[in-house]
Each structure stands twice: as structure tokens, then as C-alpha cells.
Amino acid sequence: MNRIARAERAVTKRRxxxxxxxxVIAAIILGFLATITIRATLLDVYxxxxxxxQPTLNPGESILVDLRAYGEQGPxxxxxVVFDGRGSFLPYQRASFADTISRALHWSGSNSSxxxxxxxxxxxxxxCCSPDGRLMVNGQPIDxxxxxxxxxxxxxxxxxxxxxxxxxxxxxHREKSEDSRSLLGASGGGMIPVxxxxxxxxxxxxxxxxxxxxE
Length: 215
Known about the structure:
Elements: H1 2-41, E1 43-47, E2 62-66, E3 80-84, H2 97-104, E4 113-120, E5 125-128, E6 135-137, E7 140-141, E8 158-161, E9 166-170, E10 191-193, E11 197-206, E12 212-213
Antiparallel strand pairs: 1-2, 2-11, 3-4, 3-11, 4-9, 5-6, 5-8, 6-7, 9-10, 11-12
């Protein structure tokens, strides 16, 4: 009887561990799918690698991006956005359906993603510069407290009209930013299609001691 009892206990133990491992594997899979779903549809995290958005965003920081920020209503002036640069900043790259799915599931890198500030939206005229050296939008000088200290609003003179469905973007570190100004002679004239905007930057979340909302 003892031998039979021991065998039954061993079988029960194996079944218990089998159930535990199945539960752990199922939990891992469900957690992975939930993370992918959230990062594809709700919120995502991007890492800052360049100085083009200083002092607002600095290299080494991680930012939270709200993917639900824009529906029918597109970005507004002053928003800090992440967008897919293929077809604009990367004029010779076109996004295929497979690329879009791959990006949503994070199977590919983010080498075509950019973060900039929206200066003009569809219908706006953006110019540099007013007599006192400020950017003008629709003929009115704008105040830009976010621009890197010591930088002019722009050393490059320009006057552009933003088509409907597009935005004009610039980095806060104007002397170091390659943005819409750099593409004035290219196809699309440096204008970003609204449907290529991935979301709005809402917060710096890393390092923890520097966590703050982005304005």
C-alpha cells in the first residue's frame, strides 16, 4: 500500500507542477499580448537619442507617447509629437502595410520615428522672421519660451503655407535640429502628413528623478 500511495502522490505532484507551468506560460503569453496591445493602441515609450529637442527633451530620457491623442482632430500648434518620417523626413522610403503592422507590434526598430514640435497646422502661414526676430504664424509673432537658450528662432529665412492635412515641425534646439526647414526644397516641402503622426508626447518618465509633463 505504501508503494501505491507513493506512486499516487508522485503522479499528483507531477500533475500539480504541470498545471503550475501551464499557468505560468499562459500568464506570460497573456502579459506579452497585453503589452503589445497597449503599445500598439494606447500608450508607447520612446527613448531620446538626439539633442534636437533640448531643453525640453534630452538624450537618455524616455518619453510617454499618447497614441490616442489625435483622432479626427489633428495636432495643434505647440504640441510635441512623434511621427513616422517615411515619405517626408525620409522622402525615398515608403511605408508598406507590412511595415505598419511590424511597427505597431514593435517587431522593427524606430529609426524612422522623429520627435518635434508643431509650429504650423493646415492653412497656416509660417515665416521667419518678424522685425524683432521671432517666428510669425499667420502674420503674428509668436513667443517660444521652449527654444534652447542662446538659439535664434531660426537662422534660416523662410515663408511657407502649410497645406490642409499637414503640419510644419521644428526642434526646440534650433541650431541642432534638422526639421521642416531642412526639407524646403524636397518633395512635400518639409510638411508632415497628419496621418503619419503616431501620437503626442505627454511626459518624461525616465530618469525617475526628472519625471515631468511635457509642454
